[in-house]
Amino acid sequence: MPYPMIHLEVAYQLSGQYDGIEKKGDFLLGSVAPDAVHFHERYDVHQKEISHLWDCGPIWGVTLESEKWLNHIRTFWKQYKKDANRDFIAGYCTHLFTDWMNDLRMWAPFREKIIAGADYNEIYENSKYREEAYGFDQWLYRKNAHTKMIWEFLSEGQAYELTGYIQADDLARQKQSLLTEQYSGQKEYDIGQYEFYTKEAIDSFIAECVGMIAAEIE
Questions:
Q1: DSSP letters for 134-169
Q2: What is the radius of gyration, based on Cα positions, of the chain?
Q3: Cα gap 203→134, rounded to integer Å
Q4: Average pLDDT, whole number, for the chain?
Q5: How many angstroms separate the CA atoms of 186 and 137, rounded?
Q6: Which of 13, 21, 1 is nearest to 207 (CA)?
């Protein structure tokens, strides 16, 4: 699934289009919140399946029932969209919709190719895919014209608890890590020779996510 900058950029673009968002900080923090489980002291992948409303395959990353996952997200939004922290919930669902779209458009076709003929070269390409995903994330942080505003909004976001899904203290640790650690002192990445995470591909992906999610959370 995408690293944080793509989630944040999708949310930032949505926040400029969608009049229903009042607290942009809460919305942007919500857009990374499902991954707060990674900051739990005893993290295991089952926690991520729960926070992402995912029960659609044998293991995380192998989605066999894409429409089932999409319906889970839609049902969650209908259930929680009238909560007091609506902007945070909208951001949370923005993350889930973006992950769903990533699985459909980028990851599943690549995964199915690996399964169809797994050998050493395919496994290497898998690692290359992940390497590019991380490198693009770091590149986007440095090159994105919106990064400064995203970080200002993110710093204002309130870490909410979603009982049964994520814990507020895990989210607070995630927020601190994003603001001060994950993008600090990293090397410069050159994406010019990337095969999977090209600028053109990700620009198109982000635009598709923004259009789709704007219709889902209206």
A1: HHHHHHHHHH-TTHHHHHHHHHH-----BTTTB-HH
A2: 17
A3: 16
A4: 91
A5: 11
A6: 13
Residue 160 · residue 85 · CB < 8 Å: yes
What number of other Cβ atoms are within 10 A of residue 119's Cβ?
A: 9
DSSP state of 105: I
Structure confidence by residue, pLDDT tens digits, 95-136 = 999 999 999 998 877 777 766 655 545 555 567 888 999 999
Mean pLDDT across 146-159: 97
> Six-digit token pair at 1?
């699934």
pLDDT of residue 56: 94
Q: What is the pTM for the complete model shown?
A: 0.93
Cα separation, 114 vs 5, whole angstroms = 26
